[in-house]
Amino acid sequence: MGFQIEDGTGKGYQAQINNKNMLTVSSVSRGLNFYSNRNGNFYSITFIVTPDSTGNCFYYLKNTGEEDLVIQRLSVHVASNEIIRGYLNDLGTPIGGLSRMPINRNGGSNKLCDCIAEYGSNITGLSGGDHFDSFHVPADNKSHTYRWEAGIMIPKNRTFTLYTVNGNIEIDMTVTAFCCAGL
């Protein structure tokens, strides 16, 4: 007789293998977002800003925690058509932004997100980032959501920034992120 897998309850149940040599399993699966939120590591940052010129940085996020921070989605509404460009790893010290602490999406958790988050009409002092995506946001009186299946991973001391192309357009945005603590 070959190797046998028994249950962890001590009742002697053995695992079954089907005719395709696959383990027969009954399980409950929860998504990473649910798991992160359940453990108090899921956050949102909301803000409204009108960048005052073309090409301005209007959002800055630096992960100061030990665990990776993952941007899961952006939800955005604009007053006029706008193109938003996302960058990773901008260097420098942000100047001209307003601090905005992420809100924990688990109402029973007092955990704080270890990061520096700022928004503003013209955040300066940054350069050298890597452009990873552009979002063409139409002004159609709707919020538009941009998601990344694998997320946008921000390791410790790395940054995530957003820039306008047109400028002088009001942007109402929610950035949703989770911390990979315990994963």
Percent of residues in helices? under 10%
Write down the Rg.
21 Å
Major sheet: 7 strands, antiparallel
Shape: elongated
Task: Indicate the proportion of strand residues.
Answer: over 45%
The SSE string, one letter per element, is EEHEEEEEEEEEEEE
What is the level-2 CATH architecture name? Sandwich
**Based on helices, strands and strand pairing, what is the structural class?**
mainly beta
Task: Give the SSE layout.
Layout: E1 16-17, E2 23-24, H1 32-38, E3 42-49, E4 57-63, E5 69-78, E6 82-88, E7 91-95, E8 98-99, E9 103-104, E10 115-127, E11 130-137, E12 144-154, E13 159-164, E14 171-179
Briefly, what is this?
The chain has about 180 residues and is mostly beta strands.
Walk me through what this model shows.
- This protein has one domain: Jelly Rolls, CATH 2.60.120.
- The protein has 183 residues and is mainly beta.
- A hairpin with a 5-residue loop joins strand 1 and strand 2.
- The chain is elongated.
- Helices cover 4% and strands 50% of the residues.
- The chain starts with 15 loop residues before the first strand and ends with a strand.
- The strands form three sheets. Strands 4, 6, 7, 8, 10, 11 and 13 form a seven-stranded antiparallel β-sheet that branches.
- The chain is built from one helix and 14 strands, in the order ββαββββββββββββ.
